[in-house]
UniProtKB/TrEMBL annotation:
Domain of life: Bacteria
Native species: Methylobacterium frigidaeris
Name recorded for this polypeptide: YgjP-like metallopeptidase domain-containing protein
InterPro entries according to UniProt: UTP_pyrophosphatase-like (IPR053136), YgjP-like_metallopeptidase (IPR002725)
Transmembrane segments: none
Domain YgjP-like metallopeptidase: 36-239
Length: 247
């Protein structure tokens, strides 16, 4: 008896490559049922190049589309802000003030914000060199959680509301959010912005505990909690993307 073998089609690649002026650009491929045409974008936050296409679009056609936009991709990538790794000597903003990462000691100890031998602000890290980046990231996240917890408690108290939970993550699409269940979520990168920006975001999300919308009533609540919020909101629109280049 002969048994027919079923052929399994190879999974579609998740990436394609665009070559322009001798440089290879990896492009992420995403299919979306709601997409009506092929689109191409370069994320200003992560630098990721994304090619989105409808479910039935042929991948070869999508590749040709991406190839035809090689110069556009190169131009957009060239304009991206330079990435800043968490390494000794790097300058990282903390509450809006530039701090230099100082590898204080190879002996494990607490990471602290202090002043260096020359009197300038530093983030002093005591650990083995391979762990510096993680220690700086953990320190910034902990500082963000501390400041956000205090700001949320203050604004929630003024509003007479109690959030169910506060989470700090490395969010990319939104700086903060509030769920219908009263769970607040924030980006730890807010700790790098001036304190008024973090405080405004806390007030913004706490206001959603009273108004789960962006109606005029909602903005009146925000104004009550954070008078003059236009300025920190404008700062975030102008400079927020730059915070994603650190780490």
């Amino acid at each position: 008896m002969r048994v027919a073998l079923l052929r399994r089609s190879a999974p579609e690649p998740t990436h394609v490559t665009v070559i322009h002026a001798g440089i290879c650009y990896p492009v992420t491929v995403r299919r979306r049922a709601a997409a009506r045409r092929i689109t191409l974008r370069v994320s200003s936050a992560t630098g990721e190049i994304v090619l989105t296409l409808p479910e039935r679009t042929d991948l070869a056609a999508a590749q040709r589309f991406a190839d035809s936009h090689g110069a556009w991709i190169a131009a957009r990538v060239a304009k991206l802000p330079e990435r800043v790794a968490f390494v000794p000597g790097a300058m990282v903003p903390l509450r809006g003030v530039p701090h230099r990462i100082l590898h204080w000691s190879i002996t494990s100890g607490a990471t602290i914000a202090t002043t260096g031998p020359d009197g300038t602000p530093v983030i002093a890290v005591s650990c083995g060199l391979p762990h510096v980046a993680r220690r700086v990231r953990d320190f910034l996240e902990a500082e963000a959680r501390r400041d956000l917890t205090a700001a949320v408690a203050r604004h929630a108290g003024a509003l007479g509301r109690t959030p169910k939970r506060l989470t700090v993550r490395d969010t990319r699409s939104r700086w903060g959010s509030c769920s219908a269940a009263g769970h607040l979520n924030f980006s730890w990168r807010l700790i790098m912005a001036p304190p008024t920006v973090l405080d405004y975001l806390a007030a913004h999300e706490v206001a959603h505990l009273a108004e789960m919308n962006h109606s005029d009533r909602f903005w009146r609540v925000v104004e009550t909690l954070s008078p003059g919020y236009d300025e920190p909101e404008a700062w975030l629109k102008r400079h927020g993307t730059e915070l994603h280049r650190y780490g």
